[in-house]
Design a protein that fits this description.
This is DNA-binding response regulator. This protein is an alpha/beta fold. The chain has ten helices and six strands.
Length: 219
């Protein structure tokens, strides 16, 4: 069971998320509607994970995201899973840039909540310290940059492997998704890191290396 602080300004969605988490065996220790209440709830309850919307009152811009980043600075390694209505790669990279300090981080589109098993898996993975990125966000990031070097060096299959890798999946999961062997994944991953001059470290560091490269391509 995870102790969750939930922040979402839309009352019906907040209630729906709370019920979904409860049915999944987790406990929502606080469900709030703005960034100020989010900060207070985390300070009071010290949850296992924060689940928050990006846009919240009063400005409905990035208050939820900024609150999450501030909380990460006060509570080291606090797992945070951010939900967004739209693909906003700037928000995603801003959040995930803090992953080097440890602690799970995730950025999902709200539509992903409807895929209950996948959403619950993402929640657990973030709570366990992993990095989770919505596949659509990864797709957009790659689409924006595949015409530029050095991503243009990758074969179509290597770009497919890179896209799933950037979601935070391990080799076994990548193999299942793409219907290839784990040995093939290892080979493709080796080629990717060689061509992109990235650290081939496993786990969270590998995901963050990929995301750092994608951000660099946007500079």
């Amino acid at each position: 069971m995870l102790r969750v602080v939930l922040a979402e300004d839309a009352v019906l969605l907040r209630a729906g998320l709370a019920e979904l988490l409860d049915r999944g065996g987790h406990r929502v220790v606080a469900a709030v509607g703005d960034a100020t209440e989010l900060a207070r709830a985390v300070d009071e309850h010290r949850p296992d994970i924060v689940l928050t919307d990006v846009r919240m009152p009063p400005g409905y811009r990035d208050e939820g995201l900024r609150a999450a980043l501030a909380l990460r600075s006060r509570h080291q390694r606090l797992p945070v899973l951010v939900l967004s209505q739209y693909v906003a790669t700037a928000y995603a990279t801003q959040l995930l840039g803090g992953g080097r300090d440890g602690g799970g981080l995730g950025y999902l589109l709200k539509d992903r909540v409807g895929e209950v098993a996948e959403f619950m898996d993402s929640l657990r993975r973030v709570a366990d310290g992993q990095t989770v990125v919505d596949p659509e966000v990864v797709r957009v990031l790659l689409a924006q940059r595949t015409a530029s070097r050095p991503l243009s060096r990758l074969t179509p299959r290597e770009r497919e492997v890179l896209a799933v890798m950037a979601e935070g999946r391990n080799n076994q999961s990548i193999a299942r998704r793409l219907h290839i062997t784990e040995a093939s994944v290892v080979k493709h991953a080796g080629n990717i890191f060689m061509k992109l001059d990235l650290d081939p470290a496993e786990g969270n560091r590998r995901v963050l290396a990929v995301l750092a490269h994608l951000r660099a391509e946007d500079d």
